[in-house]
Amino acid sequence: MKKKLAVVAVSGGLDSCITTAIAKKEYDLALVHINYGQRTESKELESFHKIADYFDAVKRMVIDFGHFQKIGGSSLTDKSMNINKADLESKSVPTTYVPFRNANILSACVSWAEIIGAEAIFIGAVFEDSSGYPDCRPEFFKSFEETANLGTKPETNIKIETPIIHLDKKDIIKLGLELKAPLELTWSCYRDENEACGVCDSCALRLRGFQTLGVVDPIPYKEIPNYLENKGNT
Fold first, then answer.
1. What are the structural domains of the chain?
2. pLDDT digits (tens, 9 = 90+) for 60-112
3. Mapping DSSP to helix (H, G, I), strand (E, B) and coil, where does residue 121 land?
4. Which of 56, 92, 182, 216 is deepest in the core (most CB within 10 A)?
């Protein structure tokens, strides 16, 4: 019997790769990737295509959101702003926050899902990030699902799935290993494309997760601090 179809937003990072592995259990996959002028755009795109190949995606789409660079306000898209070293205890919105990014991504996913008849949209959002990124909160996704179904055709009924939203990075990685997700194909660094910097927020969260499990992260790093000892500023 043919599987149902799901759209999965895949950045090329750890969380979206593991979310893809979860979706693959029940759905055929239509994977979408957004280029938005981020510093590691080409590396993330490369990872996306490798992940799409690995999971035998039946459809894939790459969309360019050039407006994020024009809007600015994020150190991911504005190179005049610094990407700070990780502070995993901070509760403030980091400079890497891209204003309302997830809403833009979900809007594109909903449009595509409606056209291709997908029943669900998966996104690898994590509540652990929500103190810094307000568009990673569970209530945001619940509200967006209601909005999407109000704004599409009557016969369209799309579920927005956030299967790892309540997991911390350690448990996300553990799940990925259990699912045999290709973590070696992923890229999380905000700064660099050849070797991950090891000191931005994204690298720090990822490395701390691997270190807590006692597992070696399979991607290359310029620097690998011990985040089990350094729990404040790095």
1. 4-187 (3.40.50.620)
2. 999 999 999 999 999 999 999 999 898 877 878 888 989 999 999 999 999 99
3. strand
4. 182
